[in-house]
Structures are given as structure tokens and as C-alpha cells.
Specification:
Layout (H helix, E strand, L loop, with lengths): L2 E2 L7 E6 L2 E6 L10 H15 L6 E8 L2 E2 L9 H10 L3 H17 L5 E5 L2 E3 L1 H4 L6 E4 L4 E3 L13 H6 L5 H8 L5 H6 L5 E2 L5 H10 L5 H9 L13 H8 L4 H9 L3 H10 L4 H14 L4 H17 L6 H11 L17 H5 L19
Parallel strand pairs: 3-4, 4-6, 6-8, 7-9, 8-10
Antiparallel strand pairs: 1-2, 2-3, 4-5
Length: about 375
């Protein structure tokens, strides 16, 4: 018997089936981009189930345009971020505080959390999956943290999980925002296994209808379906590590420019991103390597506040979203305009907390 916690017409459908709490992101027209309401619904469901002995584990999927699966989550609702950032809507602050709280809860949930990462998995979609104990990808998975393209940085714990990719893969993915497929996601530690997309529905129903003896039995049922998929970028590790280990954004770009055809293409990508945010992101990833998740999320909460309010009327994020999703002219007017023009003081300012420690909005997060 399914126990629905939320309206089936809701953007988040949460129900208990068998031993599992099952969540479907139900905003297919927007590729399940997260609104503040969706973040609150997800938090409410997860908190309700966290100490419920009837719920052994949680599974989450996205609704696609043709039905269940096909798209997981394209990120946060950037149109809302643009409007709120342009008008001073206080819900902008609530969105990031509550989204990062959700990300932290998932990482420390204490029960298996199974994420079906089919189709688009970007930005906020990574935030609600990377903390999972079973992160499942398919041949349709398109995974990225593409925030530098909109004058933002890989938030939702991106500093934490990207910095823990092997070698300097984290810098590569964070700076360029490049999209990777299933095999690379596993090779780089951003997924636990691949299954064919046409097997997801059967696995979902198996999870809902099986009376698992324990979490080990549940884990075994999922892992038994894993298959190998090619890791196309794994062979580029040596070049990625050599280039993205360089100490500055300019030196990374110059190193790429002197490399293979693939590396030169990556250099071209960097030249299209926000020069200021490239400097911010490089520092973010390198600081985060020595941080707990809670410390990283507090740092990112500081950073995202600065993205909208450090330079009134000159937000790189508002401008980047304008160019990509509002006016769609794809001609962002970055300030500064070139990597070479960014001053150290400009990017360092993003790491000054606007709050004393006792008043930080995420002060209660532990480890």
C-alpha cells in the first residue's frame, strides 16, 4: 500500500512503498529544475523518513517528458535566481540556505539513498545525488557542473565532491563545466555503477515490492544489475592532471593551449567562461580538499551571497543567466572581460564571510 505524502500533481511526489521511501521529481517541462518549494518538499519527506523504522531506504528519480526516468534534474531554477537576484527578493537567501541544508542531510542521512541519475544531472541535480550511497547512471546520463558558464561556481557541495575526484579531474570539471557520460562518472568517483536505462523501471518496482531482510540485501540487488560502460575521458587523465595542476587560471589555460587538440579545445572553453569566477572556482576546489562537507557548504554559502551582492548591479551570475536563459543572446558581458585582467583582491573577496561564525546561516551543520 503506497502512502503518498504529497499531492501527485506536486513537483515532488513522495510515497512509501514497501520498505522504501520513493521520491519522483515531477517537473518534467523544466527538466526537474529545483524551486524553493521543491527543496522544502524534499527536506520534509527526508526528515519524516529519517527516523521512521518502517522506511529502510530512500530512492529518488526524475520524471521525463515521456514518463518516469529520462531526466533527473537540470539544477536550480536559474530563471528564479535571475529574477530574485535582480529584484532583491529575500527568497534568494532562503533558497541557498535550504538547498545546502538538503545537500548536507543527504550526505549524512544514515539510510541507503539510491539516486537514479538518468539523463540530465547537473548543478542542483548533483547536489541531491552525490551524497547518495548508490548513485546509478545510465547510457543516457549527461553529468556536469556547468556553473562557470553562468557566472556562478559549482555549489551544492561541489567543492567537496569535485575536489575528491582523482588527480586534478575536479579542477577540470569545475572550471570548464564539461559534460561527462556514465563510464567517466564511475571512473571519476561521481557514480557507483551503470545500468541500462531500460532496466530502471524494473529495478524501481523491485525496490518497491521486495521485503528486504536488511540493507545489505537491498544493496546487493542494485549492484547485481551494474554493467560496464566506456570511460572516454579516463585516458586523458595524464594530460588533465598535468594541465589542471598548474597554480593559476592563466597558467592552466596556457598549458592547455600548448597541448593536444583536445586540450586546446578546453582552453577555448575557458575563454568563454566568466574570468572572475574561474579564479574563484580554482580557489574553491583547492580550499575544499582540506574541508569537511559542512565547512565547504559554509564557504559556498558565503560565496553565493557574494555572487549576487558583492558588486551591486555588476553580478556575474545575474549577467550570465541573462545571456543564457533570459535574453538568450549568448553574449555575456563579463567583468573583468579577460582572464589576464582579474585582480587577486577581486576573487579573494568571495572568501570573506559576510557573517560572524555565530550568525552564519549554516552554523548548525556538523562534519
Amino acid at each position: 500500500m503506497a502512502e503518498t505524502l504529497l499531492n501527485p500533481q506536486s513537483d515532488v511526489i513522495a510515497e512509501v512503498r514497501g520498505r522504501l521511501g520513493m521520491i519522483t521529481l515531477n517537473r518534467a517541462k523544466a527538466l526537474n529544475a529545483l524551486s524553493l518549494g521543491m527543496v522544502r518538499d524534499l527536506l520534509a519527506a527526508l526528515l519524516a523518513w529519517q527516523n521512521d523504522d518502517k522506511v529502510m531506504a530512500v530512492a529518488i528519480r526524475g520524471m521525463g517528458k515521456e514518463g518516469a526516468f529520462g531526466a533527473f534534474c537540470a539544477g536550480g531554477d536559474i530563471r528564479f535566481l535571475h529574477a530574485a537576484g535582480s529584484t532583491g527578493n529575500p527568497q534568494l537567501e532562503d533558497f541557498f540556505t535550504e538547498e545546502y541544508t538538503l545537500n548536507h542531510l543527504i550526505h549524512h542521512y544514515g539510510k541507503p539513498y539510491i539516486a537514479f541519475m538518468d539523463g540530465i544531472v547537473m548543478g542542483g541535480g548533483m547536489g541531491i545525488s552525490q551524497g547518495g550511497s548508490l548513485r546509478i547512471v545510465t547510457e543516457r546520463t549527461k553529468m556536469a557542473m556547468p556553473e562557470t558558464a553562468i557566472g556562478l561556481f559549482p555549489d551544492v557541495g561541489g567543492g567537496y565532491f569535485l575536489s575528491r575526484c582523482p588527480g586534478h579531474v575536479g579542477e577540470w570539471l569545475a572550471l570548464t563545466g564539461e559534460t561527462i557520460a556514465a563510464g567517466d562518472a564511475v571512473a571519476f568517483g561521481l557514480a557507483d555503477g551503470c545500468i541500462p536505462s531500460d532496466q530502471q523501471a524494473v529495478l524501481w518496482e523491485t525496490l518497491a515490492t521486495t521485503d528486504f531482510a536488511n540493507v545489505q540485501a537491498l544493496d546487493a540487488v542494485v549492484r547485481a544489475r551494474f554493467v560496464e560502460m566506456p570511460a572516454r575521458n579516463a585516458a586523458r587523465r595524464e594530460e588533465i592532471d598535468a594541465c589542471f595542476a598548474r597554480p593559476s587560471v592563466l597558467e592552466i589555460e596556457q598549458s592547455l593551449r600548448a597541448g593536444s587538440d583536445w586540450a586546446q579545445t578546453q582552453a577555448d572553453v575557458l575563454r568563454k567562461r566568466s574570468p572572475l569566477m574561474l579564479h574563484v572556482v580554482l580557489e574553491q576546489i583547492r580550499r575544499a580538499r582540506g574541508m569537511t562537507l559542512a565547512e565547504d557548504l559554509r564557504m559556498e554559502r558565503d560565496m553565493v551571497r557574494h555572487c549576487f551582492y558583492l558588486r551591486p548591479g555588476q553580478s556575474e551570475t545575474v549577467e550570465g543567466i541573462r545571456a543564457l536563459a533570459v535574453d538568450k543572446d549568448h553574449q555575456p558581458r563579463w567583468n573583468p572581460a579577460r582572464i589576464e585582467d582579474v585582480q587577486e583582491a577581486q576573487w579573494q573577496a568571495f572568501f570573506d564571510s559576510p557573517w560572524p561564525a555565530f550568525a552564519h546561516p549554516l552554523r548548525y551543520l556538523r562534519h
